[in-house]
Amino acid sequence: MTATKGRVTGVNGNMVTARVDGPVYMNEVAYIENQGRSLKSEIIRVRGDSVQLQVFELTKGIKVDDPVSFSGELLAVELGPGLLGQIYDGLQNPLPEVAEKTGYFLEAGVYLEALPRKNRWVFTPAAKAGDVVRRADTLGTVPEGSFTHRIMVPFNLYGDLTVKSIAAAGEYAVTDQVAELVDSEGVVHKVTMLFQWPVKRAVDCYAERLKPVEPMVTHVRLIDTFFPVAKGGTYCIPGPFGAGKTVLQQITSRHADVDIVIIAACGERAGEVVETLKEFPELLDPRTGRSLMERTIIVCNTSSMPVAAREASVYTAVTMAEYYRQMGLDVLLLADSTSRWAQAMREMSGRLEEIPGEEAFPAYLESVIASFYERAGIVRLADGTTGSVTVGGTVSPAGGNFEEPVTQATLKVVGAFHGLSRERSDARKYPAIHPLDSWSKYGGIIDREIVAYAHDFLFRGSEVGQMMKVVGEEGTSLDDFAVYLKGELLDAVYLQQNSFDPVDAAVSPERQKRVFGLVLTVLGTAFRLKDKDEARSYFNRVRQLFIDLNGAEWNTPRFAEVESALKAAVAERSEGLDPVAARHIETLER
Amino acid sequence: MKKVYSRIESITGNVIAVKAEGVAYGELAEVRTRFGASLAEVIRLSDDLVSLQVFAGGRGISTGDEVRFLGHPMKVSFSDSLMGRIFDGAGEPRDKGPTLDENLITIGGPSVNPAMRIIPKEMIRTGIPMIDLFNTLVKSQKLPIFSVSGEPYNELLARIAMQAEVDIIVLGGMGLKYDDYLSFKDALESGGAMSKTIMFVHTASDPVVECLMVPDISLAVAERFALKGKSVLVLLTDMTNFSDAMKEIAITQEQVPSNRGYPGDLYSQLASRYEKAVDFEGSGSITILAVTTMPGDDVTHPVPDNTGYITEGQFYLKNGRIEPFGSLSRLKQMVNGKTRSDHRAIMDGMIKLYAAYKDTLEKKSMGFQMSAWDGKLLRYGEQFEKGMMDLSVNIPLEQALDRGWEILADCFEPQETGLQTKLVDQYWPKKTA
Predict the structure, then answer these.
(1) A105 found inside a domain
(2) What does the pLDDT look like over A48-72, one tens digit per residue?
(3) Is the predicted pLDDT of residue B1 greater than 60, yes or no?
(4) With 80 as the cut, is the pLDDT of residue B431 above it?
(5) What is the number of structural domains in chain B?
(6) Mean pLDDT throughout A572-577?
(7) Main-chain dihedrals φ then ψ at residue A149, nearest 5 degrees
(8) Domain residue limits at B50
(9) Complex ipTM > 0.95
(10) Residue B432 within a domain
């Protein structure tokens, strides 16, 4: 706490005005003393001796003249071993521990330590006395779940430091000293496994940023094949309510091929977080065979929790993601929903009586969104290993209209756009990512050219479909009609995926390639068909076979059986395969 | 130190300001006017100037009227004697019963810790196939009924209230027409549900500020009953009136409006009410069904739009039927895997075919030739609307599923339905008999 003292002079919603008697920092954390509680808040504006604070709690009960004290620190999170598997609120309070203290409800002014102080970690030193180290260099390691957690030089110790002493191998708590470092001015810094880092500053301890190229496999066909996301990349999922944004995020959080997943449930439904919370400990991570919770951190500031903490929650989440990136791990951050975060900014901006921009969002909306997404990236660390933070954010545009400020600001800065459509979700076509509107700038598991061949059928099929609405089926040629049916087939059996089916829920890249090859065969084949009714019933049969194929487990006799039935069904009416498709299929099989 | 202030500095709409000291944000005061006493709530503090929102409205308040601060926020009495009673938005009796002032509880309390929530797991049966089969209602769910003026939404609400298997019903009426209030009362009384019902009703002619209190009071009472192990169903009608009341106050307060005049925190305000829906581990639960009328049948209007992002799905009530498109119960997956093995397949399959029927209908209306497939779809669509969608259909889930298979078998060949062969083998009605 600094020597500066303040007194409350006004309350308006979650904004409190106070008069201060000394120096304050912008964005400093302050505490309002009220009825025996200390309410956490942040300075968001300074005008003369009057400061405006956004309070991270309900402001009911605050009185004029309540004392305010100032911490001298920016809003920061604790970093160290023990973050994995935790459930935090937007300010990094561990919610299960809060529940032990206050029961069913969240009482204002209860702040607990983010990292358990009692846990003891088995420390193995990596540096030795006399070594010269810089920030984020490894001093030692502790095992955390299936990961080797690097105990690093705190990111806030700048310059060259000499190791004066380092703890011997053994068990330590996070607050025990593990090293003493001497800086160039001879000051000795006592280092523990735990240190703090301000959430709104990007962690910048790396050698260089690399271009994201390696695909991050999500096991969702539509994403991996058509609109891939790269490790270290960014993507957004805008969609009207009910289109399946959150379900898509949940599927990704389960099946994504990354080391660590951080879920930031920002201003959304509490119920959805609970599903993750209760189910993850029971689910196994197919990569490690351990509980999924061991690779997950949940930051949850749901819609009914105080708004200011919601704004902080995405930063809390991304800071922890960057911390694990520094250990050479691939981290995926899922933010649901960035619109709620933007709305939190809007509420505050309104209370500050700032001049509103479009739809009353503040004028700095775009730059804030851009700098958040820019915290994603794949980096080469000082020791040569690489680590990445991939950011996927959902956007909840008002009225489902993508022409609104948050969606537009987000589209400018992301590498892939998975636009969900109401039309597709109404027709129960899940995932409801619109295959014609969406795009990705990253390379996926299947060559772009091959994907484009299939995508073309979607496009042409949809065109024929539109045309048929005008000229009717009778006005459409049989060839066009076949294209239409092929487009529909691709949609039904490859784009759509049943996330509740145990087999279809997660499809390996290997299997995706195999099934995509089969789909290409159907798309590229000219069929002998008498009329449209026959065409329709034939394609219905093929579709049925594909659906059965999607439900059959990989590498089983059942899969082989359906696959050959499918091939036989195609051969039965084939009048030859398009050489381009044949070439693509060959490439795929190689 | 119940000091009385007798100088009102300003009166703007329903908001008055007085100079006072030691007042807490959110505190309640009593304003004595020549029309009687009214409650008022502190909504802004700025140095010694205290702004209060007067429940009875600003009309007729004199600058010399007395303001007395009560030293506590808005409270409501809670006890078993609430059962069967009717109150207004300020918690005063609207029936002829006595005023209750024992065991006062604070309204608008803190949020439930997400870590203490449990996964919803019990369905609430309503006997309406469009709900039970296609969009199952689940205990602790929050669902709005999106509708337009003129649709029978209040009737639907009353029917669900009477048929749903719950312990207590709390009905919160906001801006209700007086007739609607009376018909609710009649319906619940004649249906024998009044004894387990508590009503907080703000009618269209009551002061607008009281409208804002209705959801908080209703939910505070519901929460207490839920903590005592009761399963509570809260029915709110109409949340659009509530939002409009909020808009009215925000505008008089000179807040920067965000979208069509609504305040920027509309989402958070609605969410803090809806999020009270909860299933307490080892105790009771709160389920919320709330009517939201869509001005101009426009779902992108800020109120239905924000609501849709908060609630766990929505029912569209259109032309007296619950529409299969757009209607969604997000929690149905939690329960419909445990009912019958064909539940999910029938649910998805029938809707996909109904969507195809709608396309065909469009084609037909434009005068195109109908193929054999189109003919089948038309036949299907008609049967689906009659046998499933009609609100008068009142059958349990299992019977509805059987009816689904019958309709499918009557119209299609198994492979045309896109259903897994395994299910078809098990459930497809045999051609005999």
Answers:
(1) no
(2) 999 999 999 999 999 999 999 999 9
(3) no
(4) no
(5) 3
(6) 93
(7) -85, 120
(8) 4-73
(9) no
(10) no
Same domain, B37 and B135: no
Q: How far is CA A142 from the centre of its chain?
A: 26
Closest C-alpha to B403, from B132, B43, B152, B123 = B132
Domain end: B73, B107, B125, which one? B73
Q: What CATH number is associated with residue A255?
A: 3.40.50.300
Given B119, B256, B299, which is nearest A275 (Cβ)? B119
Element (H, E) at A144: strand A138-144
Q: What's residue A427's pLDDT?
A: 79
Both B154 and B284 in one domain: the answer is yes
Clarify whether residues B67 and B82 are in a common domain. no
Alpha carbon of residue A100 to chain centroid = 29
Residues B59 and B190 in one domain: no
pTM of the model: 0.91
Give the C-alpha separation, A438 to A418, whole Å: 5
Asked if A401 lies within 8 A of B344 by C-beta distance, the reply is no
Assigned domain for B419 exists: yes
Spatial distance between the Cα atoms of A549 and B278, rounded to a whole number of angstroms:
40
Residue A379: in which H helix or E strand, if any?
Answer: strand A377-380
What CATH number has the domain bearing residue A12?
2.40.10.170
Task: Calculate the average pLDDT of chain A.
Answer: 93
What 8-state DSSP symbol labels residue B76? E
Claim to verify: residue B240 and residue B119 sit in the same structural domain: yes
**Is residue B197 in a domain?**
yes
How many separate domains does chain A show? 4
Residues of chain A found within 8 Å of residue B337, distances taken between Cβ atoms: 500
Nearest beta carbon to residue A63 from set B23, B117, B272: B23
Residue A126, domain member (yes or no): yes
Are A190 and A220 in a shared domain?
no
Judged by CB atoms closer than 8 Å, whether chains meet at B258 and A58 is answered as: no
Q: Do A399 and B299 touch (CB under 8 A)?
A: yes
CB contact under 8 A, A106 and B363: no
Size of interface A-B (CB pairs under 8 A): 226
Radius of gyration of chain A (CA): 27
| A88 part of a folded domain | no
Tell me the C-alpha to C-alpha distance, in Å, between residue A326 and each of A127, A143, A320, A384, A567. Answer: 17, 15, 10, 11, 49
A272 falls in which pLDDT band (50, 70, 90)? confident
Rounded-to-10 torsion of CA A373, A378, A379, A381 = 120
Q: Could you say which of B317, B334, B351 is where a domain stops? A: B334
Write A549-557 long-range contacts (CB < 8 A, 24+).
A549/A493, A549/A515, A549/A518, A550/A493, A550/A497, A550/A498, A550/A501, A550/A503, A550/A504, A550/A515, A551/A501, A551/A503, A551/A504, A551/B420, A552/A503, A553/A503, A554/A503, A554/A508, A554/A510, A554/A511
Indicate if B270 and B127 belong to the same structural domain: yes
Q: How far away is chain B from the Cα of A502, in angstroms, using its nearest Cα? A: 13
Among candidates A277, A337, A427 on the partner chain, residue whose Cβ is nearest the Cβ of B115 = A277
Residue A275's domain spans which residues?
210-440
Residue A113 maps to a domain: no
DSSP codes of every residue in A224-293? IIIS--BTT-EEEEE--TTSSHHHHHHHHHHH-SSSEEEEEEESS-HHHHHHHHHHGGGSB-TTTSSBGG
Are B349 and B400 part of one and the same domain? Answer: yes
Q: For residue A132, which amino acid is it?
A: V
Nearest to B416 among A268, A303, A540 (CB): A540
**Contact (CB<8Å) B369/A428:** no
All residues of chain A having their beta carbon less than 8 Å from the beta carbon of residue B115 are 87, 95-96, 98-99, 277
Rounded to the nearest angstrom, the minimum Cα separation between A227 and chain B is 25
